[in-house]
């Protein structure tokens, strides 16, 4: 605490990101990054813009990338907003659509950045417990006073809702904005983008950080009715006109046009997810059915914290959340990384039995 801090800084509770160890030989399964490299076409596109033009500001309205996204999603460019990672898009959306005197709702177990934004912007919130099977309670999300936000699939559980359940949440909050955070949708869940044509109150957010292996360039976007997109633009243009740099713009455009590369890579990740699920179930773990690039598991024979710490000693990083003490979250790595991981887990469990 410093006497120079504003009251805003004093009341913040900043998000704590997963560890980013510096050692080279670790297996990093803790921040849901993609274990495979980005599309070579995206890398080449980024290289090709590193030159004299970097002296100029980038296009503030991101026209070309918005057109690429709009064509893919079968919407108009006016339905697309682009931000510096989906975290930035979410932060703008909290400011643009939620009020300081109307409680918003989100699931009790969910992406831990939502309460951080709510505190930063003084937005009250209510959390809705998950059902016993760890699915989001659709009825509990209805009739919010201030709006709703949830990821689909949810994080850190990986469990997804069906499109008709999402539609129900949108319908039963028709006077509020419903944000569906689709950070992980490409790994198997149904997208709610088609619903933006029917409902003016739904905003979908996406990121290139997970499915497109581009966490390092920070590119996220939102799709929604033109009035919601205009609201986001007004906040962005009151904050920073040039949020997306030239290199990121070039990489994102090329990546979003290389489906052949990404379809193959995403199936490798989902195949490895299914393989890892079976291996851990054989070891007696409780593994939630995941539609994402990570697994949320409750170990057998060891506590989640013991397993997290033992794996870390073996240079394997997974995510342990102190408030979810029976579970750890494991991002899906390459086939070889997951083989190593399963072997180490087996070894840790066996050594504890002795
Ligand atoms: C549910 C969810 N939403 C959004 C994000 C933010 O992604 P980014 O800011 O990299 O686009 C994450 C990142 O872990 C996430 O788990």
Descriptive notes:
Helix content is 36%, strand content 14%. It folds into two domains: 7-37 and 259-353, Aspartate Aminotransferase, domain 1, CATH 3.90.1150.10; 40-255, Type I PLP-dependent aspartate aminotransferase-like (Major domain) (Aspartate Aminotransferase, domain 2, 3-Layer(aba) Sandwich). Helix 4 packs across helix 5 and helix 4 (86-97) packs across helix 7 (226-236). It contains eleven helices and 13 strands. The chain is α/β, with parallel strands linked by helices. The protein has helices spanning 7-11, 40-49, 63-73, 86-97, 113-120, 163-171, 226-236, 246-255, 259-282, 304-313, 335-353, and strands spanning 27-28, 80-83, 104-107, 125-128, 148-151, 178-181, 202-207, 220-224, 286-287, 294-298, 316-317, 319-320, 328-331. The model has no long low-confidence stretch (mean pLDDT 96). A five-stranded mixed sheet has the order 2-8-7-6-5. Bound molecules: pyridoxal-5'-phosphate (PLP). Pyridoxal-5'-phosphate is lined by residues 32, 85-87, 111, 151, 155, 181, 183, 207, 209, 215, 220. Residues 32, 85-87, 111, 151, 155, 181, 183, 207, 209, 215, 220 line the site of pyridoxal-5'-phosphate (PLP).
Number of strands: 13
- Which structural class do the helices and strands define? alpha/beta
Strand content: 5-15%
Instruction: Give the helix tally.
Output: 11
CATH class of the largest domain: Alpha Beta
- What is the ordering of alpha helices and beta strands? HEHHEHEHEEHEEEHHHEEHEEEH
The average pLDDT is 96
What is the distance, rounded to the nearest whole angstrom, between the alpha carbons of the first and last residues?
Answer: 48 Å
What binds here, in terms of ligands, is:
pyridoxal-5'-phosphate
* Low-pLDDT sequence parts: none
How would you name the CATH homologous superfamily of the largest domain?
Type I PLP-dependent aspartate aminotransferase-like (Major domain)
* Oligomer class: single chain
Spatial strand arrangement across the major sheet: 2-8-7-6-5
Largest sheet: 5 strands, mixed
């Amino acid at each position: 605490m410093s006497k120079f801090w504003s009251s805003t800084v004093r009341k913040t509770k900043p998000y704590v990101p997963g560890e980013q160890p510096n050692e080279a030989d670790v297996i990093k399964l803790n921040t849901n990054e993609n274990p495979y490299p980005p599309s070579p076409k995206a890398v080449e596109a980024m290289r090709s813009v590193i030159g004299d033009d970097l002296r100029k500001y980038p296009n503030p309205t991101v026209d070309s990338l918005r057109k690429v996204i709009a064509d893919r999603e079968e919407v108009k460019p006016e339905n697309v907003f682009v931000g510096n990672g989906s975290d930035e898009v979410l932060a703008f959306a909290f400011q643009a659509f939620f009020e300081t005197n109307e409680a918003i709702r989100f699931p009790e177990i969910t992406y831990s950045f939502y309460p951080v934004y709510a505190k930063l912007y003084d937005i009250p919130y209510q959390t809705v417990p998950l059902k016993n099977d760890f699915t989001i309670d659709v009825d509990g999300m209805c009739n919010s006073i201030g709006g709703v936000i949830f990821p689909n699939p949810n994080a850190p559980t990986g469990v997804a809702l069906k499109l008709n359940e999402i539609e129900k949440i949108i319908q039963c909050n028709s006077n509020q904005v419903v944000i569906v955070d689709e950070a992980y949708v490409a790994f198997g869940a149904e997208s709610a983008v088609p619903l933006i044509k029917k409902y003016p109150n739904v905003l979908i957010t996406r990121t290139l950080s997970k499915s497109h292996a581009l966490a390092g360039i920070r590119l996220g976007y939102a799709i929604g009715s033109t009035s919601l997109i205009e609201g986001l633009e007004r906040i962005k243009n009151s904050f920073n006109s040039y949020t997306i740099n030239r290199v990121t713009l070039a990489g994102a455009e090329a990546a979003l046009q290389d489906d052949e590369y990404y379809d193959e890579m995403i199936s490798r990740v989902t195949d490895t997810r299914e393989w890892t699920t079976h291996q851990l179930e054989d070891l007696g773990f409780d593994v939630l059915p995941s539609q994402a690039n990570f697994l949320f598991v409750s170990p057998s024979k060891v506590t989640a914290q013991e397993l997290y710490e033992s794996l870390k000693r073996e240079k394997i990083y997974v995510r342990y959340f102190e408030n979810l003490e029976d579970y750890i979250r494991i991002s899906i790595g390459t086939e070889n990384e997951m083989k190593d991981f399963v072997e180490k887990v087996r070894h840790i469990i066996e050594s504890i039995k002795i």
